[in-house]
Amino acid sequence: MNDDHRRILDAVDAGFDAQLATTRDFVAIPSTRGAEAPCQDMMADLLRQRGYEVDDWHIDVEDLKEMRGFGPIEHDFSKARSVVGTYRPARHAGQSLILQGHCDVVPAGPVEMWDTPPFDPVVKDGKLFGRGACDMKSGTIGALYALDAIKAAGLKPTARIHFQSVIEEESTGLGALSTLQRGYRADACFIPEPTFGKMVRSQVGVIWFRLKVRGLPVHVYEAGAGANAINAAYHLIQALEKLEAAWNERAASDRHFGNVAHPINFNPGIIKGGDWASSVPAWCDVDCRIAILPGWSVAEHQAEIVACVAAAARDHRFLSNNPPVVQWTGFLSEGYELKDSAAPEAAFGKAYAAVYGGSVPDMSFTALTDTRFYGLNYDIPSLCFGASGGAMHGFNEFVDLDSLRQSTKATALFIAEWCGVEAV
């Protein structure tokens, strides 16, 4: 470790209280799907305050529909925005970098089931609690303060850096896709998702779909004369659970996921149906998620889902003549394997060794990240590494603050190593 590195690490420590305060402010914004604008306003302000060149634009879905990895949008997208802050060096000597985080968060669920309010972040026992504290607002702010630490150490990067704040990571990935459509490119991408101090070597893709099941409504006193759409939906769910099992058997031969227990997870995540407790329900919609592995075709696995649902319907008294509909509702995402990334991985390996000691541990991730767009669409090696935490998408989500401090240090040293630095 040289003197520059020591000054950077010291600067992360000196700025950590300010970093935590900014993170709390960021987490306090309830940036659920369609309501991300205040977070993007905050991020644009933070970037402008630091002197970055800020590009803040509304996303036009029509511009993205022909791009690889596009997923359909069902909600009002008229206020959707991406924000990019660009640092341009006076002298180009290093390699360019995209630093990206997403500001959208999943719904908090019943607030009364949280120990503390989800959008009133609390620090206790060395952890920051709140929706999005772990996934992934702390990582985004950590990357911003990693850049601050380089400046505070009396240094400046010698390569172009795009700091990107995106939305839709939790449902389609169109925020990241929009930055590529806008023309942003770099020699590498780094996304500080919470990875428990490991480098994501391989990650699943995800397909979202809706089962639209229709029944025959009658008064419940003659229930046998009707067809219960909710019960019929459960019949289809059970068939899809068998498909999940078959796909997991297929995954056993994968070089990254073969040793991962149950990498393919099917989840019926939302169910709506019926209109009256004393009427046999005429309709039921079930929103589902299922994973696929890197190298698996999205289109082929969509076809398997449709075939599975059709076969189950043929075995059902009512559905055999009233087949359900499968509707694609969000993610249509391929899995991603980190490849052709020796140079940025070597740079990060040095940073990791200086902060943690030893070699970077790998992980095969049974969720997905935006890294896929950079690697698959434009051959930009995309690293994903970040802090530890827990209860992501659950109650009492938290990020561990010691691990956040460490990951911020590793991010700062990686930027210095990859982009190069010189005295201000």
From TrEMBL:
Belongs to the peptidase M20A family. GO terms for molecular function: hydrolase activity; metal ion binding. Residues 203-315 form the Peptidase M20 dimerisation domain. It comes from the Bacteria. CDD domains: M20_ArgE_DapE-like (cd03895). Keywords: Cobalt, Hydrolase, Metal-binding, Zinc. InterPro entries: ArgE/DapE, Bact_exopeptidase_dim_dom, Peptidase_M20, Peptidase_M20_dimer, Peptidase_M20A, YodQ-like. Gene3D superfamilies: 3.30.70.360, Zn peptidases. Its cofactor is Co(2+); Zn(2+). It comes from Rhodopseudomonas palustris (strain BisB18). This is Acetylornithine deacetylase or succinyl-diaminopimelate desuccinylase.
